[in-house]
Amino acid sequence: MRTVLFALALCVTCLAAPMPDVEVVVPPSAFHPQNWLRPQFRDNPNPNYRGKSAGSLAEFVTPEVISKIVVDQYAGPDEDVRRYLTAMPTAAAEYFGPSLELGQSRRNTSNGPPVYGARLDWTSTSTVTFESGRSGRLAVATVVVSNVPKPLVGFNLPKVFGLSDAPNCLGLDKVPVDSLYVSYVDPDGYSWAFAIPSKRKK
User: Fold this and answer.
1) pTM of the shown model
2) DSSP designation for 173
3) What does the pLDDT read at residue 109?
4) Quick check: 140 pLDDT over 70?
5) Which DSSP symbol is given to 40?
6) Helices (DSSP H) in 107-188: which residue ranges?
7) Average pLDDT over residues 26-34
């Protein structure tokens, strides 16, 4: 009986122990000015994503366990990048399936004023390694307000990664300014998108 009680107490102690911190490596060679940083991730949504949900990146990647995040490129202070990447696995996230399309600024008419929308300021791209040895990719951007008008009709520019002209794209009421836009590519090559809302002091 004492052995059973000791084993139960040991299990409770193990469960109560804090999870090990994710190792985040930000090599100086990964630094790029803000305007150079572009995510090199191909949008390849998983057709069988329905029914998958999560409140954090750590919940989403279960049963994999993130052990290390190595930054491939970043803009801004490396300590800022290391801080939000360390917190990201367990940060409360809104999951939006294989893509998260934010409404970018656009004009109602050719002569009308621009409609305010979102802009993505890319902060980092990283390689995520799991304890199993498999790896995925992360691209992170800060969501900011954009009121830059679109080019005139007739200019065929490539779609901006993470932004959309669709009338039903998400607005800043759903993904607040200063949130993090997170694009995750899993080890099988499928892409997923999250938003991590910023916590404002009341």
Assistant:
1) 0.80
2) T
3) 57
4) yes
5) -
6) none
7) 92
| Predicted pLDDT at 115 | 67
Of the candidates 91, 92, 87, 93, which has an alpha carbon nearest to the alpha carbon of residue 21? 87
Please state the separation of Cα 152 from the chain's center in Å.
31
Of 90, 162, 81, the C-alpha closest to 125 is 81
Question: In the block, which residue shows the tokens 């590519």?
Answer: 185
Q: How many CA atoms lie within 13 A of 122 on its CB side?
A: 24
> Which of these, 58, 68, 87, lies nearest to 24 by C-alpha position?
68
At 158 the pLDDT is: 65
Contact assessment for residue 178 and residue 142, using Cβ atoms and an 8 Å cutoff: yes
| Three-state secondary-structure class, residue 28 | helix
Task: Give the span between the Cα atoms of 175 and 162, in whole angstroms.
Answer: 12
Q: What is the pLDDT of residues 63-120, one digit of tens each?
A: 999 999 999 999 999 999 999 999 999 999 998 888 888 988 866 556 666 667 898 9
Tokens of 185: 């590519």
Neighbours of 115 (CB within 10 A): 16
118 backbone dihedrals φ, ψ, rounded to 5°: -95, 150
